Amino acid sequence: MTIRQGARQLATGQRSRLHVLHVDSGEDVVIAESGSLLFEAPNWTPDGAWLLVNGDGGLFRVAPSGGGLVPVGLGDVPGINNDHVLSPDGSSVFVSAFDGHLYEVVLATGESRRVSNDRGDHFMHFLHGVSPDGQTLAYIGLQIEPDGSVLTNVWTIPAAGGIDVQLTDDRYPDDGSEYSPDGAWIYFNSERGSSTPGHAQLFRMAIDGSNVQQLTDDERVNWFPHPSPDGSRIAFVSFPPGTLGHPADLPVLLRLIEADGTVRDLISLFGGQGTINVASWAPDGRRLAYVDYPIEG
After folding, report:
1. Is 109 exposed, middle or buried (0-12, 13-18, 19+ CB in 10 A)?
2. Which residue from 87, 231, 251, 252 has the fewest beta carbons nearer than 10 Å?
3. In a domain, 7, yes or no
4. Euclidean distance between CA atoms 40 and 53, whole angstroms
5. What is the domain-level CATH number for residue 219?
């Protein structure tokens, strides 16, 4: 989630690098990099043929074997941020735009339409999940209160447009709402259960907002849970203790909750914001895509 603003830019001497990590073997391959375009948040198409990333307000695709970034037409959609997900059939992509709204874009034609409702300038939508049947989107609703404070809660909305449903209603910062592959759960990160500001952990809840369960409980700051395609494992990005929010340009870990509940480190990198904001598992469940942002010198 990125509060309404323009697209991020690389710092002097910094590069964006898109990796494909083989989770079990540890093989890690850089498939695209740039010293001019800050790209973020890789998604895989359901057929595994392409990866999508955003950058400079646009969307791009690249083959998992490597190659150049190819622009993806977004029709009349305003510039987008790093919260985008593909429909289960791969025919369209749902995106969060800098105007605070959600849009659907048909990939074959670039035809676009707005999905979200107008809740006023004080409310912004940040997309993270689409249900396995493609019927419902899970998003984070960010509401700016009259006193300037910010509330973030988990909401859903029909993918075709319709009435929003608020699933959480509290003052705990929530983010990263993503469906389980069987459609029974929504995974998210939250600061609930902690008295330390910024100390986010991973949770899941039933799709009606009931039965909230905590999945991690450690000293690190854990964000963006991504269940594997078979639902047996969960990848996430882990920030250093004491981190507030999910900033860019920090030493972070990609970690994995195994099927037996144990947690292991996959890789350490320089990144954070933009690294794996959205679902980044390959359809085969054996590979993860992520972005890091090394700075020379």
Report:
1. exposed
2. 251
3. no
4. 5
5. 2.120.10.30
Domain count, the chain: 1
Q: Which residues of 225-236 are buried (b: 16+ CB within 10 A; e: fewer)?
A: bbbbbeeebbbb
Q: What does the alpha-carbon distance between residue 9 and residue 92 come to, in Å, rounded to a whole number?
A: 27
d(CA 166, CA 164): 7
Q: What is the pLDDT of residues 96-139, one digit of tens each?
A: 999 999 999 999 999 999 999 999 999 999 999 999 999 999 99
Give the structural domain span for 237.
16-292
> For residues 172 and 153, is the Cβ–Cβ distance under 8 A?
no
**How far apart (Å, rounded) are the C-alpha atoms in residues 208 and 185?**
9
Give domain status of residue 178, yes or no: yes
Altogether, the residues listed in the chain come to a count of 297
Q: Order of strands across the sheet with 201-206?
A: 174-179, 185-190, 201-206, 213-214
Question: Would you say residue 8 lies in a domain?
Answer: no
Cβ pair 247, 262 in contact under 8 A = no
Other residues' Cβ atoms within 10 Å of the Cβ of residue 7: 19
- The tokens describing 105, both together, are 């874009």
Neighbours of 188 (CB within 10 A): 30
pLDDT in tens, 190-247: 999 888 889 999 999 999 999 999 999 999 999 999 999 999 999 999 999 999 999 9
Q: What's the CA dihedral at 123, 124, 126, 131 to 10 degrees? A: 50
> What is the reported pTM?
0.95
Structure tokens at 93: 């992509």
